[in-house]
Amino acid sequence: MTDSTRPAERWDLFCTVIDNFGDIGVAWRLARQLVAEHGVALRLWVDDFASFARIEPRLDAAADAQTVAGVEIRRWTPGSANLDADVAPGRVVIEAFGCRLPDGFLAAMAACAPRPVWLNLEYLSAEDWVDGCHGMASPHPRLPLTQYFYFPGFTAQSGGLIGERDLAARRDAFLADAAGLAAYWASLGLSGRAPGETRVSVFSYETPALASLVEAWSASGAPVTALVPEGRALAELSRVLGQALAAGDKATRGALTVAALPMTDQDGYDRLLWACDVNIVRGEDSFLRAQWAARPFLWHIYRQDDGVHLDKLDAFLARYTQGLAEPAAEALVAFSRAFNRDEAVSEAWRALEKQRDALARHARDWAARQAAMGDLAARLVQFVENRLK
Ligand code: TRH
């Protein structure tokens, strides 16, 4: 065994952007946390810098290699035979969401002694089977390599949830600072709240259900402000309102004001979730960050052709509503199912409104209980250590 075959004391995390921002959103949060909290030397491989730059404005989309927030970031081309540069694998290699590694890199991993710990970071799901599959080993069909499935999840038996150690403290400090909060709203072009006003962030996919929300909100007895980052939901709301909205624009219909926002970095998006009363979120990462915001939220799940997303939605709702009083649980489930089936939700919204206090209390309990279980990065480091022994 020669020194040159030893894996570098570094982790490699590979990500391909399938669409939107969730794949890179999850990978970027995990990368930053592993570096900041666990002192890992980490190289993050990403194929689509244009998408990445939308959620991390410090990224130079033209540079193939750079360091941001202590993370070494490199461009790669999925499907290529090898990485562009001749790079030695790190002691831990993670594929985010089953992105396939180049054959040349796999061969280099197989040639290492000891061989890197090789993981596939899977999508987050609340389904029961996750606990049984977390940590399962899968031998490579040809090479002397074993890949482990790492499943995030909501239980102690799963891989846990991504969340920084100081997240709750940062959130609470932000919300306790009245002057800072007023300045935050002013930065979005909004003044203090009108009596009874509800502020809702909207980061869903497009769905006809949004039109029925506009109907319910504009006819509401108290003001509703919808804060909508640029993207798919804003495009849909522009269609519904018959008015093209870009970041900085506002539109008013009855009790409803729609405020279009620019996309910000991930920390900026967290602040939006913390500041709003209700958050409409989607995919994986915004869905999770809404839970850490400890506010009532509504999940527009990523649609899958075979309809399995509706089972995943129900699995989450079954878990989330445990301990939530019946009328609030019913209202949340009814709204969530209707919204995700593209049905009208005006009535469901009004029912939900009546349960706001119970949902807010429950959201705080849920966030505290999940945080107490230990976060994904810490569990991942432990998982790796156990395999290195
Ligand atoms: O963008 P998403 O829909 O992403 C995904 C992908 O489509 C993926 O292929 C799919 O498998 C997965 O969903 C389930 O939703 P998500 O996961 O919420 O990611 C959005 C990211 O964008 C998240 O990291 C937060 C970030 N973001 C910002 O950083 N700034 C912003 O202003 C906003 C609105 C979002």
Automatic annotation (TrEMBL):
Methyltransferase keyword on record: no
GO function terms (MF aspect): protein-arginine rhamnosyltransferase activity
Pfam family name, one: EarP
UniProt keywords, alphabetically: Glycosyltransferase, Transferase
Catalytic activities: dTDP-beta-L-rhamnose + L-arginyl-[protein] = N(omega)-(alpha-L-rhamnosyl)-L-arginyl-[protein] + dTDP + H(+)
UniProt cross-references to InterPro entries, sorted A to Z: EarP
NCBIfam families linked: efp_Arg_rhamno
Similarity remark: Belongs to the glycosyltransferase 104 family.
Purpose of the protein: Protein-arginine rhamnosyltransferase that catalyzes the transfer of a single rhamnose to elongation factor P (EF-P) on 'Lys-32', a modification required for EF-P-dependent rescue of polyproline stalled ribosomes.
UniProt protein name: Protein-arginine rhamnosyltransferase
